[in-house]
Structure formats: C-alpha cells, structure tokens
Fold:
Amino acid sequence: MDCLHSSVSTSRRPLLQVPVDPPILAEHIRRAYANRENLHRLDHLLNGSVPGPDSIQMRTNDYLGLAAHPRIIGAEIEALEEGGHGDSLSRIFAHRREDRHRAFERRLANLMGAEDSVLCNSGYCANVGLIQAIAGPGSVVHIDMLAHASLWEGIKSAGATARAFRHNDPAHLERQIQTYGPGVIAIDALYSTSGHKAPLAAFVEVAERHGCVLVVDETHSFGAHGTDGAGLVDAAGLTGRVHFRTLGLSKAVSSRGGAIVCSARNADFYRYEAMPMIFSTTVLAHEVAGFEAALDIIRDEPWRRQRLHANHTRLRDGLDAIGYNVDISDSQIIGLEAGSDDAIIAFRDAVERHGIFGSVFCAPATPKNRAILRFTVHCNLSEADIATVLAALDSVWFEVGAGDWTSSRRRRGRTTLSLAA
Ligand SMILES: Cc1ncc(COP(=O)(O)O)c(C=O)c1O
Structure:
C-alpha cells in the first residue's frame, strides 16, 4: 500500500487539493464502516497475493478461453475501422434501426429459442432494469436467497417487496407464494458462488400453478451449457415456459454487455421502460461485432465446451477423492467452503503459496461464516494443470484443517480419504 501511494504521489500535481468531506458524508461513511467492522479485513481478504506468469488462474469467467481469440479481435478491429465508435447514444433513440445491434438481438433470440431479445450494457443492467420494469410498489418478488445481487438491486429500484425463499427449494417458494401472494420469481440458472444448478422444471411448475412471472438469470450458463451454448432453460426444453431470461456477456462470451430474452411484446415493453435502457449509453458497434464473433466460435468450436466440462469433472472428482465437499457443484464453478473469514484467509494463502489462484467470496456474497474459495474452471487448463491443482489441494488439507470445516462435516456420510494420508 505504501509503495502504491508513493508511486502515485510522484505523478500527482504538486498543488493537489483534497476537498474536506462535509460531516454528512463523513458520518455516513463512519456508520457504513461501523456496520461492517471487518471492512479492512475483508479488503485484505479479497486481495490476496498477486499471481505470477506461471500461476494457475481459476479466477476468470472466460470459461471458453475466448478473451484473446483472433476471430473476436479481428471482428472488433474491422468494425472499428469501418465505423469507429458509431453513434454514442442511448438505445432508446435507435430501437427501430436495423443495425448491427438489432441483428445481434435477433440472432441471440433465435439461438435461445425466443421471439426477441434486447441488448443491455451489462448483465447487471439487464437484471436491475428488468425487475424495475416489470415490478413496482405493491409487487412481490420471490427471490432465491442466493440469487445474484443485481436481481436484489432491481427489487430495490422497483420499490417492490422482496420475499426470499430457501436456496433451490421450490417447495419453500410455493409456501411463500401461498403466504404472500403471487408475483415475480427470480432465480439464477447456475449459481455463481456454488456452481449449483437450479431445478428449473420444478420452478416452472410452481410459477405456472400460481400465475407468477418467472425470471431466470443465465449469465453463467449461457455459452457454456446447452446446444451451441443456448443455456440451461433451452437444454431443459423450457423455453416456452420461462417468461424472461437474462444474461451477462461477460462470462463465456468474455466481453462486457448483457441481454434479456423474452417475447417480442415484453421486449418492446422493456426497451421503453427499463431505466438503464433509457438513461445510459448503449454498447458500441465494435463490441457487438465481438459478441457476434464469440457466438460463431461457440457454435464452431464445441471442443471448448467439451473440454470445459471434462476439466470440471476431473477437478471435481479429484477434490471429492481428497475429501473436499464438492457435493453442490455440478458445473464449471467449484466453491470450497472454508467457513469463517480466518479459515478462508488461511486456505486462500496456503493455496496461493502453491501458485494457484481462485476468488474469495464472503458475506454478503455468501451467508455469514460460509466463506468460499471459488475456482472457475476453464477450457485452457491442461491435464497437468489440474494434476498440479489437485496435488496442491491435497497437500494443504491438513495444514488448513479442512477436515474440521463444517462443509466437510456436512459431506454426506462419506469417509475422508486424503491422498497425503
Ligand atoms: C449470476 C450473475 N448475474 C449477473 C451478473 C452481472 O453480469 P455482468 O458482469 O455482465 O454485469 C453476474 C456477474 O457477476 C452474475 O454472476
């Protein structure tokens, strides 16, 4: 930190003047810190050490290894050379244009078996804008307790009432609907910290029984699951029964942008009602060119998805054999739950000493004392990389006391076998 300050200060203007925070702001910040007494610890906890060139990175959401794909970069450069950044405006003024954005929306809808889609600036904007547009004061939004923060923000933005139901528990959802009435149901198809998939068919049935609107966030499943990456709703044959699907183009598509996918009528409603669509500048044309190229690659190079899932299975099975609780991960996201902040720091540091980097998630992203080290598997991991990860995770098992973690004890009645034992 000191180093950072000194290097920054050398490039600062000598007469830098820092405004004094008025009491109203100083007090607000003091209270926020007081409510999160361990904020400084959390900051340290999230930062960890810095990966080197030979580290094994399992932090990225670039599941299919597309970040530097020459077809994507080529398509973006071509689009930039052709039209520069194009019009820098809110999409509200351009919905009727038959341009690159609109062509992409049609293509995405077609891929996902829907009537239409709307491009958004990010997955976050897609979710906030959607809930804000389809709910309002007096509406109830039944939301999975582990659903993404952007869906929760959408509820706040709408002024709607959030009713949380137990994670992946359609029976609890049904009881909540019986108590609080029908409304919007918001779930993730694939949960970003645990890798847990939602039981989609069961949620669809509850939604239909009670006349609810079903919103499914496919951010982590789009591109990585289903035919040509169309996602889990499509894979389950439920496209005609889910009202809205949302996605970030920031994971398997390895870019920055998002979309909602739905009926033509609802897409049009969203276009003119969702605040982020109205009051924020749209994605740029060369970014859309990159999305198009990514969809081409996802379609043309299925080996990437196959390798992703083979890698996930190999890593998951290996971790299971060591004794880690991977019971809930049935996808490319593997979250190992160390528990307390102290436990996750010890685990994270031990793993990083072996040159392996995951991402720490703790409260409020997880329930309190259920902090997780998340490994996002990707298709560029080699068999040797996975063997290295498994050897490292095996060797730290006793050092970090993983056998005593609550998650290990929860591991369903199975014996612990450490390779190091
Ligand atoms: C489940 C889920 N939904 C939405 C988002 C937001 O997507 P984006 O990063 O494209 O804004 C994320 C990203 O972290 C996510 O994990």
